[in-house]
Amino acid sequence: MDLDHHGATKITIEEPKAHDSKGKGVADAPAPVKVTTKATKLHQGGGKKGIAIFDLVLRLSAIAAGFAATSIMGTADEILPFFTQFLQFHAQYNNVPTFQFFTIVNAITSGYLVLSLPFSIVCIVRPHAIGPRLLLMILDTVAMAITVSAASAAASIVYVAHNGSPYTNWNPFCQQFNDFCQQSSSAVVASFVAATMLLFLVILSAFALKRI
Amino acid sequence: MDLDHHGATKITIEEPKAHDSKGKGVADAPAPVKVTTKATKLHQGGGKKGIAIFDLVLRLSAIAAGFAATSIMGTADEILPFFTQFLQFHAQYNNVPTFQFFTIVNAITSGYLVLSLPFSIVCIVRPHAIGPRLLLMILDTVAMAITVSAASAAASIVYVAHNGSPYTNWNPFCQQFNDFCQQSSSAVVASFVAATMLLFLVILSAFALKRI
Q1: Other CB atoms within 10 A of residue A61 CB
Q2: 8 A C-beta contact, residue A209 and residue A130
Q3: Is B165 helix (H, G, I), strand (E, B) or coil?
Q4: How far apart are alpha carbons B105 and B85 in whole angstroms?
Q5: What's the half-sphere exposure (Cβ side, CA atoms, 13 Å) at A50?
């Protein structure tokens, strides 16, 4: 290499100089671009930090909603003081498999959301870190899917419990177990709130991931 | 330093040439970096194009699954040739509100997926376009949420239809309406397949959006 350059310089003196200035010009060309990129990066950093802080706040709210759903459904329990047309007179969430599924899934989601808090904080400290952001996004999507699934399954049971299903001859039991029904309805609403927050978390992550 | 070099150039002509060639080396230094960036971009472009093609294939499969779910549930219809313990002997999807919701949501999802095909193709042609990718991701997430919701709600009803719910005194009706039950179960499975594909579409979009 060195030898070649020496050889070239020995033959023409002006040309390499002219080329040099051109080369320099070309070499200088990316410099302002680089400065702009830096400025954009700083600007982006601010925006991404804002998104990351909003992410943490939304995550904390989702944890509250998730734990509310779990605990409301978990403690839904009603013992009737009299006999009814039903054989049993003790309504509990684990009598209905769907409500059991609901409670377990909401507990899992709340637990995951608590464990995800450190990653969310890492995203605030390092707004440009892609790894934790991508991990959070994928896990949030899965958490949202299972939470929506549990909430909808429970909602359809609660609907039948309230209104019955005359075509399938399923009688509503909410008139007998009023408190139990109200508690499970509240749990379903809380779970849907948690799922909606997870939906927004996924969309926020998409904005944080996108290159501007 | 510069002065020193200039001083040196005044005395000898070869030296500045040598310096020139050195300067060239320095001036050219960012060039290979630029080439690498270009190469990375090309490489990225290839990767993103691959993701975009996989996105289209997955989208087509999700359309098939969504339409299958809609049509199977929509045509689920059974008339019993004899009277049973039920008052009616004609089972149809629109007798059960949850199945109605299921059919409508799956139709909406399938329709959305068909409409999203041009955007998916744009993402193949322009792998670096962020707008359509972000739009697809957000709409896919929402579509996944409603599909999972419909599938789970229908699944919980199908579960009760198969197994009954002794605690709430709801009798299973699948022994009477066997074909209807099998059709609705298949529809639920197809819908879950569509939802899973949408989940993968969201995760794919996350990878396509991330800056490497």
Answers
A1: 16
A2: yes
A3: strand
A4: 32
A5: 7
Of A105, A66, A73, A106, the C-alpha closest to A92 is: A73
pLDDT digit string (tens) for A96-147?
889 999 999 999 999 999 999 999 999 999 888 888 999 999 999 999 999 9
Helix (H) or strand (E) holding A54: helix A30-74
- Record the pTM: 0.77
Instruction: Report whether B106 contacts B66 (CB < 8 A).
Output: yes
Hey, which residues 107-166 in chain B have their CB within 8 Å of chain A?
Answer: 130, 133-134, 137-138, 141-142, 144-145, 148-157, 159-161, 165
Q: Which of A43-57, B13-27, B143-157, B171-185 has the lowest mean pLDDT?
A: B13-27
Contact between residue B98 and residue A156 where contact means Cβ atoms under 8 Å apart: yes
Which residues from chain B sit within 8 angstroms of residue A23, using beta carbons? 24, 27-28
CA dist B120 and B112 (Å) reads: 12
* B83/A contact by beta carbon, under 8 A: no
Coil/strand/helix, residue A205 = helix
* Strand partners of residue B90: B79
Q: Tell me the CA distances in angstroms from A193 to A62, A198, B157, one per residue in order.
A: 7, 9, 23
Phi, psi at B173, each rounded to 5°: -115, 10
Question: Which of B20, B165, B211 is facing A16, going by the closest CB pair?
Answer: B20
Q: What separation in angstroms does the CA of B164 have from each of A157, A165, A169, B111, B169? A: 12, 13, 11, 34, 8
